[in-house]
Amino acid sequence: MENNQPSVPLPNRRVHTVLGFLRGVSAHDTAEPLALLADDFAYSVVPSQPTPWRLTSPPLDKARFSQHLAGLFTVFASLRMSPTDMLEDDTSGCLVVCATTWGCSGLVSAADATLLVRLSSDGKLIEEIEEIADF
What residue spans define the domains of the chain? Predict the structure, then answer.
C-alpha cells in the first residue's frame, strides 16, 4: 500500500508518521492508523520484566491489529495516547515513544506506555510496534 504523505526530510518523516498513528488512535479512527502500517506489520506486547506469571501473546498482523483497535474503541469510550518523549535512532530507523494513555470504561484510568516503533526505510510506514507493558 502506498502512503501519500507530504515530502518531509527523513528524520521528521518518521516522527510525522508516528504522530499520525497516535493522532488516529486518539481520534478513535482506525483508517488513519491502518493507512500508516506496512502490509507485513506486526504488533506485540512484551512485559517490562520477564517473569513466569507475565503472559505474552503472539504478534498481531495488520488485520488482527485492526480488530484489536476496534475492540479497544468499543471498551474505552475515550482513549487518548499523548507522546511525552521520542527518541529516534537514525541507524535503525526506529523510534522509542514514551506516551501517556487515558481511557474511560466506567472509570478513568491513565497509564504510561513505551512503544518501540520500527519504520520503513523511507519513514512513511510503520513495520512493527512493540509495546512494553506492566501487567
Answer: 10-133
Non-local CB neighbours of 2 within 8 Å, separated by 6+ positions: none
Amino acid letter for position 52: P
Measured in residues, the chain has a length of: 135
Per-residue model confidence (pLDDT) at position 9: 53
This prediction has a pTM of 0.82
The top-level CATH class assigned to 10-133 is alpha beta
Phi, psi angle pair for 90, to nearest 5°: -65, -30
Q: What is the dihedral of CA 115, 121, 123, 128, to 10 degrees?
A: -30
**Cα 116 from Cα 125, distance rounded (Å):** 14
